[in-house]
Amino acid sequence: MPSLLRRAALVAVLLPSIAAAQTGAALINKAGANTPIPNPTFPGQQKLEYKVAWDVTQGPAKPEDAVAGFAAPASFLVEADQNGLDRKKVHLAIIVHGTATQSLLGNEAYKAATGKDNASIALLQALNEAGVQVIVCGQALVNRKVPRDKLLPFVKVATSATMARATLHAQGYATFSP
């Protein structure tokens, strides 16, 4: 667990500068960087279909920081590539609620709310382009007064995080917290 906290802290510090410098696959590779393991004895299996979703609830420590939890699917994509998995067999989703909800706003709305640019946008766009579903809890939108019409255009709205999690589970997804 301590290594996960160190990794999250490192991502929170580095992601804003990474996001400003890179986009797309390069940003995913940078945000999801890890130590490659040569000759693993329990590698990802080529024949399997991977369906993974992450609950992302923690917003940034400071408004100008990116949400650290958004790096988890980037890391999985990097690991899938390291294992030689066919990306057509990798299906990922992020279920956003809690204090992370506001990070799904477009930059103009985020800046109006926080006074800072939204450092999460570049990675979220790169993940969306890579096929990662970004789903927000409708209850969190209402409770946190986040305007639905100001969300990034690719964000899907669920009635609740619980319903999103249940639906993805019924579709065969495993759900994790970063």
What does this structure look like?
- The chain is α/β, with parallel strands linked by helices and 178 residues long.
- Helix 3 links the parallel strand 1 and strand 2.
List the helices and strands and how they pair.
Blueprint: H1 2-21, H2 24-31, E1 50-56, H3 71-82, E2 90-96, H4 107-114, H5 121-129, E3 133-137, H6 138-143, E4 156-158, H7 161-170, E5 174-176
Parallel strand pairs: 1-2, 1-5, 2-3, 3-4
Sequence stretches where pLDDT stays below 50 over 5 or more residues? 1-21
Category by helix and strand content: alpha/beta
The radius of gyration over CA amounts to: 16 Å
Number of helices in the DSSP assignment: 7
Q: Tally the beta strands.
A: 5
Largest sheet: 5 strands, parallel
Apparent shape: globular
CATH architecture: 3-Layer(aba) Sandwich
> What fraction of the residues are assigned to beta strands by DSSP?
5-15%
CATH class: Alpha Beta
Q: Write out the strand line-up for the largest beta sheet, numbering strands in chain order.
A: 4-3-2-1-5
CATH-defined fold name: Hypothetical Protein Ychn, Chain: A
Average of pLDDT:
89
N/C terminus separation: 11 Å
Give helix and strand order, one letter per element, not per position.
Answer: HHEHEHHEHEHE
Q: Which percent bin holds the helix content?
A: 40-55%
Give the count of structural domains: 1
Please identify which CATH superfamily we are dealing with: DsrEFH-like
